[in-house]
Amino acid sequence: MKILVIGGTNFIGPPVVRRLCGMGYEVTVFHRGKSIVELPSDVHRILGERTHLDKFKNKFEEISPQVVLDMFAYTEQDARTLMNTFKGIAQRVVAISSMDVYRAYGVILGRESELVPVPLTEDSPLRSSLYPFREMPNRPLDAPVDYEKILVERVVMSDPDLPGTILRLPMVYGPGDIRHRLFPYLQRIDDNRPAIVLEESIAEWRGSYGYVENVAYAIALAVCHEQAKGRIYHVADAEVFSEAERITRVGKVARWQGKVISVSKDKLPVEWKLPVNTEQHWFVDSTRIRQELGYKEVVPPEEALQRTIDWERTHPPKEPEKLAEPWLLDYATEDTILTKLV
User: Fold this and answer.
1) How much is the pTM?
2) How many Cβ atoms from other residues are within 10 Å of residue 175's Cβ?
3) Closest CA to 165 of 81, 67, 306
4) Is the dihedral of CA 159, 161, 162, 167 positive or negative?
5) How many angstroms separate the Cα of 314 from the Cα of each of 176, 187, 282?
6) Which residues on adjacent β-strands are paired with residue 222?
7) Cα 319 from Cα 157, distance rounded (Å)
8) pLDDT band (50, 70, 90) for residue 322
9) pLDDT tens digits, residue range 245-283?
C-alpha cells in the first residue's frame, strides 16, 4: 500500500513514518524541508508549502497513494484544501485531531460552565465555542489564530467520496517534544528541590497523556486498517494519574529524593489565581481503538518516562522561562510555604 504523509518531520511524524515503513508500506512525505530529521532511506520526499498543497496535484496523481495521513491540518481551510486536492486520487484520508474538541476543554478554559462527565468517549459533547486560542495570550507554539480541530473534523468526515478517519490525541510527551511537557517539573527535580508544592485542585486534576512512540503506533494502525474508515478514535495511555501522581512517577524514575506536597488554596498568596478551571478533568476512554484495531502500548510506562527524561536533560529548551507552568510557584514562595508546614 502507498501512503502519503503530510508533515512527517516534526515531533510525532518521524516515528509514524518509521512505523509505517517497518510495516512494509511505501511512504512519501510532503514537507517544507526545514526540519532536520532522519527518516528511513527508502522514504520518498516532496518539498512544498502546506498552503500550496493543491499545486502539487499532478505529483500526487503520479504517486497515487491509497491513504493520505495529514499530521497538521489545523484550520478549516487546511481541511478543505486537503479534501479538494485528494478527491479522485486517494481512497481515504486520516487526519490528526485533539482532545481539545470537547466541551470539557471549553470548561477548563472558562468559556463553558457546566462540568462534563469523564472519562470522555468519542461521543462526548464538543465545544460550543470555536477557536479556543484566539483570546489566549500564550497559545501553543504551533497553533495559528484560526486553529480549530472541530471544523477540521467536520470537513474531513463529510465527503462520502473520500472517507475519513479521525484520531483525537492526548497531551503527547517524549523525545522531540517542542513543548517540553516534562521539563518544568524535571528542572525542579534536577535542582534537587525538597518538594514541589501544588494547590490541591491541581494536585488532584487528571488528564490524558500519551508517549510519542505509542501514539505513533496507534496512528499507523488507523492508516493501515480499512475498517478505520469513517471512525473516530481516542489515543491515550491506559492508566490515568492525578498530576501529583504523575510528577511523583517522574521523580521516581529520575531518582529524586523529594516529594509532591498538596496545599489548600488558603495557604497560597492572596494574589495567586489558577488560570484554568481544574474542577473539570480531561481524560478519555481509549477502548474503541484497542478493541477495533488491536492497539496496545509498545513502550511500557517506566521506559517511556526514562527516555523522555534522558532527552529533556540533553535537549533543554532555549527559553525555559516561557515553558513554566503557571500553577508552579517560585522557589522563594514555595520555601516559605514549606517552612510553615514543618
Assistant:
1) 0.96
2) 19
3) 67
4) positive
5) 11, 12, 30
6) none
7) 39
8) confident
9) 999 999 999 999 999 999 999 999 888 888 899 999 999
Q: Which residue reads 461521543 in cell numbers?
A: 123
| 3-state DSSP of 242-311 | EHHHHHHHHHHHCCCCCEEEEECHHHCCCCCCCCCCCCCCECECCHHHHHHHCCCCCCCHHHHHHHHHHH
How far are the Cα atoms of 147, 179, 274 from residue 139, in angstroms, in the given order?
10, 11, 17
- Pick from 115, 75, 97: which is nearest to 166 by CA? 97
DSSP string across 13-36: HHHHHHHHHHTT-EEEEEE-S-S-
Amino acid identity, position 130: L
Cell of 175: 523525545
Q: Which residues are within 8 A (CB) of 280 and not within 5 positions of it... i.e. 6 or more apart?
A: 104, 107, 108, 115, 116
Number of residues that this document lists for the chain? 342
Instruction: Give the cell for residue 54.
Output: 493543491
> Could you tell me which residues are beta bridge partners of residue 164?
93
Do 94 and 220 contact (CB within 8 A), yes or no? no
Q: Between β-strands 171-173 and 26-31, what pairing exists: parallel, antiparallel or unpaired?
A: unpaired
Report which of residues 111 and 321 the model is more confident about.
111
Alpha-carbon distance 233 to 120, whole Å?
12
Rounded CA-CA distance 227/224 in Å is: 9
